[in-house]
Amino acid sequence: MPPPKLLIANRGEIALRIIRSAKALSIPTIAIFTQADAASPHVSAADEAYPVGGENGDGSDPKGYLDIDAIVGLVKKSGATMVAPGYGFLSENAAFAEAIEAIGVTFLGPTPYQMTSMGLKHEARAVAKKAGVPIVPGSEGAVASLEDAVKVAGGIGYPVLVKSSGGGGGMGMQVCRSEQELVANFESTRAKGAALFKESTVFLEKFITRARHVEVQIFGNGQGHVVHMGERECSVQRRHQKVIEEAPCVLFSSEMGKGVRKRMCEAAVRLGELMKYRSAGTVEFVLDVDSPTYEFYFLELNARIQVEHAITEVTHPGLDLVALMIRQGLSPSKSLPPSDLVQEDYLPIDGHAIEVRVYCENPKAGFKPCPGQLHEVLWGSVGKRGRIDTWVKTGTTVTPHYDPMIAKVVVHGETRDEAIANMLTTLDDSRIIGPTTNLDYCKTILSTPEFEAGEIYTTFLDSFVYAPPAMEVLSAGLSTTVQDLRGRFVGKGIPRGGAADGLALSVANLLVGNGTGVEGLEMTMMGAKLLFHVDSVVAVTGCQMPLAIDGQKAEMWSSLPIRAGQTLRIGSASSTGLRSYLAVRGGLLNVSTFEGSKSTFTGAALGGYQGRALIPGDLLTITPSSLSSFTPSSWPSVPAYDNTWQIDVCPGPQWDEEYLSEEGMKTLLEGKEGGGGWKVSPASNRSGLRLEGPRVKWARTDGGEGGSHPSNVIDQGYPFAALNMNGDTPVLFGVDAPDMGGFSCVLTVATHDLWKLGQIRPGDSISFNLIPTSSIPKLLKTLESWLSSPSSPPPSASSSTKPSELLKTNVLHRSQKPGKPETIFRSSGDRFITYEIGPMALDLPNRVLIELWERSIRALSLPGIISFSTCIRSCIVHFDPAQISQEALLKVMVEEDEKLGGAEGEEIETRVWKFPAVVDDKWCKEAVEYYMKTARKEAVYLPSNADYLAKNNGLGPDAVYDMITKTPWLVLAQGFFVMLPFMIPLDPRLRLVGQKYNPSRTKTPEGAIGLAGVIGAIYPIASAGGYQLLGRTLTPWNAWAKEDEGESKTLLSNFDQIEFYPVNEAEFIKIEQAYKAGSFKPTSSQKVFKVAEYLAFVSSHAKEVEEFKKGQKEASEALGKQEEEMFSAFQADSEKTSASANSTSTSDTGAPGAAGGGLPIVSPLAATVWKILLHPGDVIQDEEQNVVELEAMKTSVFVPAGEEVVGRKVKSVVVKEGEGVSPGDVLVTVE
């Protein structure tokens, strides 16, 4: 006989619950999972785990838990001897039980016959009647027709309940209070039963108006011996589904109640004995409170373990119902002896227990499920006897595929009052941030006088009025996100983030009485519509957007009182500016802090509300405000926005004649010839503003080892708000920009002008005003005085500072000593200094010196040092000039540099990791194909990055495979994007070189291994990118690591080594699933990296390296020239297409209203017409009806009709899909 092994045919908390009992009995467990559940904790908690369902059994179908054939196949494959179905899914499916037993495996549950007899409710009524169990007055069996239904209802009296015979969980039933309602609902109930349960049969029962739902837990040995474990009350129900349960029933504390309990439990046992019931089951009754003796009637028998079984266990110390089920399955006869099931053992009830089911759902929106990522999960204490059965933790994503229940909170008290108090304390101390939950809803129910008095009926929640302390998003505009001013200063590729226009958010907060750093809503181009469920005080600042409270016009830049039930509507931006900000008194409470800030970074789904822009239905918890003593206030002087902007800047790290020609410098400052500025492209967002204009002339022809384009550099740290040269495209970095990469940063925005980056819109023009850093403190004071004395002149789009003479270098200090590489200190903005060692080349000894230098600066603990961004040959230091001046910091930096010796004798502790890798995989190929369809069709690196790299290095087709798998890779830095590791092959003979994508990709798969110049990287999440794609491995990034428990957000550290071992795509999928489930972790070992040994290795292969580099140089130069020609052709074609689109747009639209003289609906920004949503003759139904979908800022922009055209007919559609439009261009006219 094979050893026992238990397969759990379920997921979530019940799977974990079963695993817990099995482990206590030393029974090995087997989990099944779908891809949607691959990271669910039951997968790693079990001893084995297998994907279920989907194509080839890969788990791709979320409905895999319902796939009987697939599960039976896994039972056979795994060698399971028992199957535990849990609740839901197939737990009451007789066919499933039969299939399991047919292969000689024990099913831990009732027999298939018992399931069938209890599964159809009209048949269950007949069995109950035979057992002498009271049944609700109703039809004798199924009702075949509406005519019969009317007749039966007339006999038993209204109201009646029409119930689907196959229904369950509150579904498939309808209360009818009159013949008219019965006629209206009879056929629809039948249809619903057929759709949900494949059973159209219905029957009728008398509906008891003031009913209590009381159920009895039973357990049978399958031989006719049945015991009960007392009752549970489950009267708190929404949509006939339980929310709060308790044991024992409060009604049964009186002498009469005790008699009712005895009769009810005996009835439940009689039913089980008649059926010779096997395993755990629950007999549910409806109790009529209005009857003088608390008459009760049979409702149904749930032939499985119940969700709420925990409260029975808590009030019966030592009871483990799941363990009883397993023990029965282990017995040779599959039946526990009566001596193991003694009724007297279960009669005592110890205290009182309450269970709250926590769902990700919105009680205010009809309990709509709310899937999403949980950014914070913190449970309050439940005491010694309580427990929390859950499957979620911080970082868990609740998918839309399954039941939204995330936890069962169970508490115990000596009395019911104590249990209620304990539960309220537990829920008060719990914190769940992410999707909306029913946590506050349950707290509110528990605090009602009705619940406290025990006077709850099954219909209580039908009329229960719940007002969450929140504002509800009715419509979210184009992009509305939570942002604050604090930002994040951890570096390593986690963007600073925060409000793009911190000035406007600061004022909004001051107007409502908050500190300037409190979080608010940032609305881009189009505002939100918000319903307030409690009184509040708000303010809206930023670019001009029309405001209305319940349709009444309201003013921006003013504090506004809003009463519970009122709606605030924020319209679309006017012709200037891009973003507006909403502050709420007290802030937004259900937004978690990630690395010190509540700001949303949508690029990595971090921070804010679920890491994303808001959508309709979101609830933002706020603090109710007292309006009785409200005094309005307004800001007297408002910033002047424009479509032409002057931005004060300082030299960036590459503002030097070494990189840029003098002509190139002038071009960067002025833009178009004659000083026309740079035009902002529609392809702009919070990460950066892409600028269109002339090509910049460089002082060099390529980027050396950084890449073939002169804008390329060996990867370096980026200053905040830098002008980054992405190939030939300048990108003015925004708040969500990367902090590290391989492109030149030529200018840095002065601190006092950072707010402007949040208000520049596509189509605007920008010119740069180069100023000395010494002038910035005074300009900052002017800005700060406006915040403290708002009557002073406001800031504007223009510059108030005269430009300095053209500064041609940013070098602050240069040092060259015998035996040491040259070091350069560069001014990189008014808050950044860059430290460089050696030439623009990859040199490991120099990287070691950079590391030692950074460690020495850190050890000094200087005040005012904010962060370091250390990369291959440089370190950029971010400092606060209010605490340490540039001069003082420079002095210390130079002093520490002078203390450095050589790197040859240095040794660094490191780890060697083993990572799986798929070379030239399908996922990377799909990203390349998407790039060719959406960005650029032809380039030297297309269609195959691997083939390009082989040619670019003068090597054969296996070059990429050899580079990945035949040498360790050394991690040199982490940054750019959420701790992306920059790395190189240690063997210089396998150190390939390649250019970056130009322009960059918008899609890259998670775990992609990339290469640009000589630097490799692992993309931590799916994202944009510019590196050549070599293959795929595991991501080292874990956003939700518990750092207070010693975990790290990344597996890797600087100077770690990675050894990749080859796997195929199918093997990788399995490894990745196990990795995300926590059951697989790459192995690592300790090692010491010795610089001398590395140099000796390089020296021993010097001739091979020299020959390799010679061939590499020849090949890359040839392909570089070819790429120059191909890119020029691409750029010319792009300019031609853009000019054609603009010409078409201008000729078609003309002046506003010119197309036929109708009322115009215009484009709010420069964009491309993606889809036309209305046609001539259509009637505008409401102001929020969208007329055209545009594409801009890498997202869809819906243009609403507006209230002034509601009820009018569309006269003409002026634009065509695919063409470009400018701000103000007419899209549609209406009569």
Outline the fold blueprint.
Elements: E1 6-8, H1 12-24, E2 29-33, H2 41-45, E3 48-51, H3 68-78, E4 82-84, H4 94-102, E5 106-107, H5 112-119, H6 121-130, H7 146-156, E6 160-168, E7 171-176, H8 179-197, E8 202-206, E9 211-221, E10 226-238, E11 241-247, H9 255-275, E12 278-288, E13 296-302, H10 309-314, H11 321-330, E14 352-359, E15 361-362, E16 368-369, E17 372-373, E18 376-378, E19 387-390, E20 397-398, E21 405-413, H12 416-429, E22 431-433, H13 439-446, H14 449-452, E23 470-475, E24 479-483, H15 502-512, E25 520-524, E26 529-532, E27 536-542, E28 547-549, E29 552-554, E30 559-562, E31 567-570, E32 579-584, E33 619-621, E34 644-651, H16 662-670, E35 678-680, E36 688-692, E37 712-717, E38 722-726, E39 729-733, E40 740-749, E41 765-770, H17 776-788, E42 811-815, E43 823-827, E44 832-837, H18 844-860, E45 865-870, E46 874-879, H19 886-898, E47 907-919, H20 922-934, H21 945-952, H22 959-965, E48 969-975, E49 980-985, E50 1001-1004, E51 1008-1012, E52 1015-1018, E53 1023-1025, E54 1028-1032, E55 1057-1062, H23 1065-1077, E56 1084-1090, H24 1091-1100, ...
Parallel strand pairs: 1-2, 1-4, 2-3, 4-5, 34-41, 47-55
Antiparallel strand pairs: 6-7, 6-8, 9-10, 9-12, 10-11, 11-14, 12-13, 14-21, 15-16, 17-20, 18-22, 19-21, 23-26, 23-33, 24-25, 25-32, 26-31, 27-30, 27-32, 28-29, 28-31, 34-40, 35-36, 35-41, 36-39, 37-40, 38-39, 38-40, 42-43, 43-44, 44-46, 45-46, 47-54, 47-56, 48-49, 48-55, 49-52, 50-53, 51-52, 51-54, ...
